[in-house]
């Protein structure tokens, strides 16, 4: 186990970031790592030869690693959240979940069912019973697997008691627009990004 832990740390130490126009981006990383995505506080890489990812936090957000670990420990037995394997000062290692994000589903025309909306409601409700405050739920951190299960990733902000309406607003959009005949089968990425940008500027306190 010590060797595995050391390997994870070596991978984390291989990652460096740079700031471009006020935004962190990956500057370099170990050649065996493949980037899965990057968010406001960290970048996520697929680890080689195992179904795990390593999430490496940007320097100003390194303390978030411990907080996200604590959050995961509170809901570790729920099947819709990722299994956690390791934590250190600036990274966590958790289960790799193969699937499409809700963003990708909308773009590619993959149907999102009412049952899947209810799955998210149930998973967030469970988190609340464990003393967490589900927050920052958006199209990029809802993963839908090939068997139709919705998995929730990136729960670092679940410890923030500040009310967050993002999921309520997404769900309202689902009922008001997505289920209507006029809703497009495939939604352009630029349109979703534009809507998200307008949402953040219009409702800065909702996320």
What's this model, at a glance?
The protein is built from six helices and ten strands. With 207 residues, it is of the alpha+beta class.
Structure overview:
This protein folds into 2 domains: 2-95, Phosphorylase Kinase, domain 1 (2-Layer Sandwich); 100-202, Transferase(Phosphotransferase), domain 1 (Orthogonal Bundle). Strand 4 and strand 5 (52-57) form a beta hairpin. The strands form 3 sheets. A 5-stranded antiparallel β-sheet has the order 3-4-5-7-6, with helices on both faces. A 3-stranded antiparallel β-sheet has the order 8-9-10. It has 207 residues and is α+β, with helices and mostly antiparallel strands. The termini are far apart. It has helices spanning 2-13, 64-74, 102-108, 114-129, 166-178, 189-202, and strands spanning 16-20, 23-28, 34-38, 42-46, 52-57, 84-87, 91-95, 100-101, 142-144, 150-152.
Q: List how many beta strands DSSP finds.
A: 10
Give the helices and strands as they follow along the chain: HEEEEEHEEEHHEEHH
Count of runs of 4 or more consecutive helical residues: 6
Question: Which term fits the overall shape?
Answer: globular
Assigned CATH class of the largest domain = Mainly Alpha
Second-tier CATH architecture of the largest domain? Orthogonal Bundle
Mean pLDDT: 93
């Amino acid at each position: 186990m010590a060797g595995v832990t050391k390997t994870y740390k070596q991978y984390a130490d291989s990652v460096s970031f740079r700031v471009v126009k006020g935004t962190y981006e990956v500057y370099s990383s170990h050649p065996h790592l493949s980037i899965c995505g990057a968010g406001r506080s960290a970048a996520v890489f697929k680890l080689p030869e195992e179904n795990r990812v390593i999430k490496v936090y940007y320097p100003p957000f390194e303390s978030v690693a411990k907080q996200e670990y604590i959050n995961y420990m509170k809901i570790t037995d729920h099947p819709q959240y990722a299994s956690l394997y390791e934590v250190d000062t600036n990274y966590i290692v958790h289960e790799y979940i193969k699937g499409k994000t809700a963003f990708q589903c909308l773009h590619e025309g993959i149907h999102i069912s009412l049952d899947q909306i209810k799955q998210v409601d149930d998973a967030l409700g469970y988190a609340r019973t464990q003393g967490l405050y589900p927050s920052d739920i958006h199209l990029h951190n809802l993963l839908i697997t090939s068997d139709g299960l919705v998995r929730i990733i990136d729960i670092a902000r679940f410890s923030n008691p500040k009310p967050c309406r993002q999921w309520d607003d997404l769900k309202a959009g689902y009922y008001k627009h997505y289920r209507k005949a006029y809703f497009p089968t495939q939604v352009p990425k630029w349109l979703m990004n534009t809507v998200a940008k307008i949402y953040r500027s219009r409702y800065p306190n909702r996320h």
